[in-house]
Structure formats: C-alpha cells, structure tokens
Amino acid sequence: MIDWALIAESWPLYLNGLKVSLILMAISVSASFLLSVPLAIARVSRNPWLSKPVFLYTYVIRGTPLLVQLYMIYFGLAQFEWLRESIAWPLFRNAWFCAWLAFALNSTAYTTEILAGALRQTPSGELEAARSLGMSTATIYARILLPSAIRRALPQYGNELVMVMHATSIASAVTIVELTRTARDVYYNHLAPFEAFGLVAVFYFVITFALVGLVKLLEGRFLRHLRPMSVPSKAA
Amino acid sequence: MFLHGYFPAILEGLRSTLLISATSLSIACLFGLIGAGAKLSGSRLAGLAADAYTTLIRGLPELVLLLLIFYGGQIMVNALADRAGLGYFDINPFLAGTLTLGFIFGAYLTETFRGAILAIPRGQMEAGKAYGMTRGQILRRIILPQMVRHAIPGFTNNWLVMIKATALLSIIGLDDMVHRANLASAATRAPFTFYATIAGLYLAVTTISILLLGWLERRFSLGVRKVEF
Predict the structure, then answer these.
(1) Share of chain B above pLDDT 70, in %
(2) Which of A2, A128, A217, B181 is the most buried (most CB within 10 A)?
(3) Residue A48 belongs to domain with CATH number
C-alpha cells in the first residue's frame, strides 16, 4: 500500500518545491499584472494602431501551447549568434529567467483580455459623469475606469491565478526543481508513482483551494456593491 | 532546403497531434456526458461522485494528472496482470495519453454540458412528456439538438485548451508535433526555427477551429432571435 516512510523522507524536498513553485508564480503574476493594465487600455482603445497589435499579441499567445513558448525561449533563442554574443546572454541561458519570461508573457495575454473585457462592461453613465466633471482621460482611468474594472475582473482573474499556478508545473521541463520536478525525481528514484504524484497532487489541491478562497474573500470585500440583495431591510 | 528537410517529419507530427486531439475529444465528450448526466440525475450518490470528479480534476495541473495516471496506471495494470499470471504489459502511450487527456477534459465538459442542458426551458421537456414522448425521444428530439447550441461556446474553449494541452504528452514520450520538433532541433541546431514552425501550426489549427465552430454555432442558432439594443 502507501509507503509512508517514503513520504516522510521526501517531505522536505516537497516543501522546497512548494517554495520554488510559489516564488515562480508570484514573480510571473506580478509582472503580468503590471504589463496587462496598459495593454488592456490599449486593447479597448478606439485607435486601431493601439488595439490591433495588442489583439495580435494576445491572439498568438493564446493560440499556442505554453510549453512551446517556453521551449522557444529557453532552447530556441540559443540559435541566434548575435544573442549568444550579447550581454543579455547570461539571462537567456538561465532557466529561471526563461520560465519567468514565458509565464509572464503568457499570463499577460490572458490577463489583458480579462481586463479589457471588464473595461468594456463599464456602465456608460459613469464615463459620462466623469467627463462632465471635466476629468482628464488619465484621471478617468485612474479614478473611475480601472478601479471598477479590476473589481469586476476579480472572479475571472481568480481563475487566471489558478491557471498560472498550474502552469508553473511546466517549468519542470526546463530543469527547475519546483513541485512537479520534485515529484518526478522522487518517482524516478523510487518508482513509486502513487506516493510521488499523489503527494504533489495534495500540495497543488491545497494551493488551488487556498487561492480560490482568497479570491472569494477579496470578492466579498470589493464586490459587495454587486451582491444580489436578499431581503429589503426593514430597518430603513 | 526548407526546414533542413524536416518539414515532412513535422507534418507527420501535426497529423499525430490532430489524431491525439480528436481521440481525446471523443473520450472527453463521453466522460462529459456521463458526468453531466450524473449531476442532473437527482441521485445523491451519482451527484457526489461527479462533484468529486470535477473538483479533483480542476484543482490539479494537467501535467501532474498526466504523470499520475500514466505512471500510476502502468504500475496498476502490471500489478493486475501479474496477479492474473500474465506477463509484463508495455502500455501504449497513445492509448494512455488520450485516455488521460479525455478523462481530464471530461471534467471540464461535464460543467459545459450541464449548463447547456439547464439552459433549455423546463417547459419544453414537460411539453414533450405531455405529448406522450418517451424519455429517449425527449432526449433525442428536444434536449440534444438544443444542447449543442448552448454548449458550443464552452465546447470551443475546452477544445482550444485541449489541443494546446496535447503538447504536454510529448513529456511522457508520445510522438506528437512537439516531440518531432525536439528531434529536429537536436539534429540541426536550429531549435527556434522548429519551435516557431510548430507554434505557427498550432495557431493555424486553433484559428481554423474557431472559424469552424463559430460557423457551427450560427448554424445551430438559426431561428434564434438575438437581443437587439
């Protein structure tokens, strides 16, 4: 049956893998969020010179597998001699940098579309009110459009966070010893697939539901005004 | 020479990727229909089992499920074969890979199909019953044709995600497009060329899928009036 001794023995390895997975996720998600806010604004712009390139970017990224994108960056770029001779080469030779770049660029495409969708749902009255108060476009984005769009995007953004968490498992294909690589190593050393992958499944399951719970909490806090009203209060 | 002469090999890989995707999709539809049926059956046990299935699958990365089912299944089948006094079985990676992907995406399709069935007004099924139709007739003539229409958007999404997920099968040794690109890269030292080529092919497949399924959705929605603002 289950080899508990093996699980106890490899537990520290898994904890280390967990740390690596979480760091990978955190740096990818922060970069993609920062990138996707300006890209989403460009995506909903009426100027086709702004919106079309962003559409092309998100379309290409969303239409190709993340694994292939990662391979293109990590294995592929070595093909170009000018890059190998440039000062940026130590970065592109580094698996961490390549994985971060691939995950951040990939997640940026999805997050941009989520944010752009939320921006388009802005009630037109809010925009008109802001304009009638004489706000500049920058002020309108900073005070009206973005705060409410980011709130509306929360449920979908929560899904995206879970997707990025799951996507970090692909980093195991480029020598990064995160959770999945740890499990694969334990499997190869002991040929115990249920212990090795079962344990890592428990880890991912817990993180996934922690993320889902966290987003639920944020939704309760930031989307309070959109909750369906249950009973009209009698106190009023 | 075009792609160092590896173009036919890559195309062969594309064929294999498409075959894997189509097979996995059929299996996923089967699991999805069973799952949706279980969730809507009203039976507590079936509902709980289907809930456990969809929650578990959606809480885990595809790669981890793939490794767990592929390597775990291998050991389990061989343990069973050993007990039955049969020899060692080498599991066919194509079979194991497509079954696993089908099982995973069946969970996502369960939700899509469930939503699609719930979107059909109850009155229509009651009307069918009032006309004396059998359950099978109601399913065939009323539910399924309309379910297709409601399911297409979710179905399209799942199909696109699944095509891209087949790339992961190269990690467990399936001879798909990514695997072909790996081999060609190693032989020619032109990895970017090959990965960019297959990326373009994936993009072509997803683009054609979007166009075809969009056309299908319009076709199944003939006679449905759109809300006009």
Answers:
(1) 98
(2) B181
(3) 1.10.3720.10
Residue A146 has pLDDT above 50, yes or no: yes
Residue at token pair 């040929």: A191
Residue B1 has pLDDT above 70, yes or no: no
| Cross-chain residue pair A76–B191, CB shorter than 8 Å | yes
Is residue B98 within 8 Å of B20, Cβ to Cβ?
yes
Considering its fold, how many domains does chain A have in total?
A: 1
Backbone angles phi, psi at B175, to 5 degrees: -85, 70
Instruction: Write out the two tokens for A205.
Output: 């399951």
Measured between alpha carbons, how far apart are the two ends of chain A, in Å?
A: 63
Q: What is B2-220's CATH topology?
A: MetI-like fold (1.10.3720)
Contact criterion met (CB < 8 Å) for B164 and A64: yes
Whether B125 and B143 have beta carbons less than 8 Å apart is answered as: yes
- Read off the tokens for A156: 């979908």
Q: What is the ipTM metric for this complex? A: 0.89
Enclosing domain of residue A48: 4-224
**Nearest CB to B167 within list A68, A193, A205:** A68
Using a CB-CB distance cutoff of 8 angstroms, which residues of chain B are in contact with residue A79?
A: 189-193
Which residues in B lie closer than 8 A to residue A78 (C-beta atoms)? 191-192
Does any domain span residue A171?
yes
Phi, psi of A62 (to 5 degrees): -75, -15
Closest residue to A65, CB basis, from B65, B71, B167: B167
Which of B106, B85, B61 has its CA nearest to residue A168?
B61
Strand (E) or helix (H) holding B191 = helix B191-220
Task: Taking residues A95-119, report their average pLDDT.
Answer: 96
Share of chain A above pLDDT 70, in %: 96
Q: What is the mean pLDDT of residues B147-159?
A: 91
Contact A180 B160 (CB under 8 A): no
Which DSSP letter does residue A231 get? S
Could you please report the per-residue DSSP string of A195-217?
Answer: HHHHHHHHHHHHHHHHHHHHHHH
> Which tens digits make up the pLDDT trace of A115-133?
999 999 999 999 999 999 9
Residues in chain A, total: 236
Chain-chain contact of B191 with A208 (C-beta, under 8 angstroms):
no
State how far residue A46 is from chain B, nearest Cα, in angstroms: 21
How many Cα atoms occupy the beta-carbon half-sphere of A206 within 13 Å?
A: 8
pLDDT tens readout for residues B3-38:
888 999 999 999 999 999 999 999 999 999 999 999
- Flag whether A168 is in a domain: yes
Verdict on whether the full-model pTM lies above 0.95? no
